[in-house]
Request: fold
Amino acid sequence: MKEFDFGMVGLGVMGRNLLLNMADHGFSVAGLDLDPEKAASLEKEASEEHTIKGTTSAQEFVSLLQKPRAIMLLVPAGKPVDAVINSLLPYLEEGDIVVDGGNSYFPDTNRRVEELDAKGIHFFGMGISGGEKGARFGPSMMPGGNESAYERLRPIFEAIAAKVNGEPCVTYLGSGSAGNYVKMVHNGIEYAIMELIAEMYDLLKRGYGVSDAKIQQLFEDWNNSELASFLLEITADILKKEDEVTGKGLLLNYISDTAKAKGTGKWTSQNAMDIQAPVPAIDAAVQMRDISKYKEERVKAAKSLTWEAPAEDTDVDTLAATLKDAFYFSMINIYAQGMAQLTIASKEYNYGLNLEEVAKIWRGGCIIRAACLEDFRKAYQKDQHLPNLLLDETLGASLVATQTAARNAVKMTVDKGIPASVLMSAVAYFDSYRSEILPTNLIQAQRDFFGAHKYERTDKEGIFHTEWNS
Reply:
C-alpha cells in the first residue's frame, strides 16, 4: 500500500480543508476521525488528482504514513489533545513528529514536548490563522519545536501557506512552545483590533448618528488606504449584509451585544502580567467582552446612570478624517504592545524569536493581516533588537503626526459618553512610554510609608527607608 506524506487527526472543517490544500499541492494525505461519516466524506471531497485516505482506526492511520511520520492534531485544546496523543503512542516510533494545530495554552505544549521527547518523539505546537477559507487556500502558520525535525514538515507547510510577494507565510519560530505563544499573542492583538473597530463604529453610530450605509462606506474607504486589513475588510462586508429573517435592515442590528470568547485573549493578558509586559489595549479588549456579558445589569444602569451629550453640528467628512488617523494611531500602538510582549517572552522562555519573521508570516493568510505589517518587517530588518516598534524612527514619526487625531477622538468619546477602552488605552500607553518621568516615585514613597518596602534615590546609589511619621 502507498505510504502517505502526511496525516491529520480531526476531520472537522479546518482539518479537512488543510488536507485538501495539501492534496492540491501534490502531497498524499491520510485522515483519522472517530466519526465514520467524516472519514468517508474526506475521500468523497477529493478530486481524481488527489491521493487521500480516510480511516477511523488509529493503528491503520499510523501504518499508512511514511517514516518519520508527520501527524497533525486538529482537535479541541486541553484534554482531547492528550487523549489523541495517548491513542497514537502505541503505534508511533522514535523520530516521528506530532503537531498540535489547535490553540493550546503554551505551558501545556511545554509539558507535551518534554513527555514525548522522553519517548524520542518530536512534538510541535503550531498556531494556524485564517479560518476555514485560509486552511483551504493558504493560512498563516506558526510552528515551534525541534528545529531539525521541522525540515520534515517544511516542504509541506511552505507549499500550503499563504504567499506574499512569493514568500510563504510560515517559518520555524523557535523551540518548545514558541509557536503556540506567538499564536496566543496574535489572538490578543486580534481582540484589541476588533474592539477598536467596534469603538469606531459605536462612536459614529450612537455618538454622531451616522447611518449604517455611511459607516460601511467609510470602513471600505479606510480598507483601501494605509489602514488596509482583513478585519476592516470583513467589517465593511458585515455592514452590507441584510437580515434575511425579517427582511428589514442589516443583520448586524439584530445580533446580540453579549460577546463570546475562547480564552486566548485572556491568556495573553494573564501571561503579559506574569512577565511584566504592559499590553493595556489587549487587556481593555478582554475586559470589554467581559462587561458585555452583564447585559441585564447594563440595561438597568442605562436607565439611571444617564448622560446627556452636548448637542453639536458635526461635519461627517471632518469627523471621518479624524477617526481615520485615530484608528491608525491606535492600531500601531496595539501591534507595538503585542510585539513588545513577544520580545520580552522570547528572552523569558528562550524562544529565540525573530520578530521580522513573525511580521513577515502575519502579512498574509491570517486574521490580523494588514498593510502595516510590512512596515513592521522593515523596522525589525533595520534593527533586529528593536525592543518596541514605537522606537522605530519611521513608525514613531507617523504616531507623532497622528496623535492629535487620537487625542481628539478620545475627547469625542468622553463628550458623547461612548465607551472606548482600547482607544483610550492606546493613547495612555503612548503617553506612558514617551514619558521620561512618571509619577511612580510617589507610589514608591507610599509603599515605603505603609509597608517599609524601601525605595531608590535619583541622586545616589543604594536602597533606602524613611520613618515617614517621625
Strands lie at 6-9, 29-32, 52-55, 70-73, 97-100, 122-129, 140-144, 163-164, 167-168. The chain is about 55% helix and 10% strand. The first helix runs from residue 13 to 24.
